[in-house]
Every structure is written in C-alpha cells, then in structure tokens.
User: Which sequence fits this backbone?
C-alpha cells in the first residue's frame, strides 16, 4: 500500500519528465552526436578536473577554464654545515 501511494504521488512528476524527454530528447541526441568526440578529446587531455576552476563564459561567447593557483610548497630546511669557527683545536 505504501509503494502504491508513493507511485500515485510521483505519477505527475514522471509524466512531466516523459514530456520533457520527448521535447528535448532529439535536441540532446544531436548535441551528443556533434559534441561527443570533442568532449572525449578534452576529457583525454585533462587528467584531474579538480585542478581547474569552474568554466567562465566571456561576453564575446568564449568559454575559458582556468587552472586553480597551485599552493606554494615550503622550502625544505637546509642542513646546516658546521662552521670551522665553532671548533677549538687542542
């Protein structure tokens, strides 16, 4: 009974989703056919998407994706060489 009630509540949303798929399905299929190879090539070149900022669209329509700034790594401490002045000859 619970599942039947849930199905009845969700039915309008599912019908709306099916209408959306019927309306935009052909356009999405065309988009995937045309852009799929270019997106696959881009994905092959990018190894870690976490290194990049969110894409930004410029006023002229260009889309840019900037790399995030890399944090500066602290320099490792240098080993101190003993000074000859610290030793006393006996």
Assistant:
């Amino acid at each position: 009974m619970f599942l039947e009630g849930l199905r009845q509540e969700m039915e309008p949303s599912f019908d709306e989703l099916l209408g959306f798929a019927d309306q935009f399905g052909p356009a999405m299929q065309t988009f995937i056919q045309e852009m799929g190879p270019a997106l696959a090539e881009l994905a092959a070149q990018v190894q870690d998407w976490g290194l990049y900022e969110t894409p930004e669209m410029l006023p002229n329509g260009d889309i840019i994706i900037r790399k995030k700034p890399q944090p500066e790594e602290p320099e490792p401490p240098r080993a101190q060489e003993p000074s000859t002045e610290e030793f006393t000859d006996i």
Summary: The longest strand covers residues 56-57. The chain has a mean pLDDT of 80.
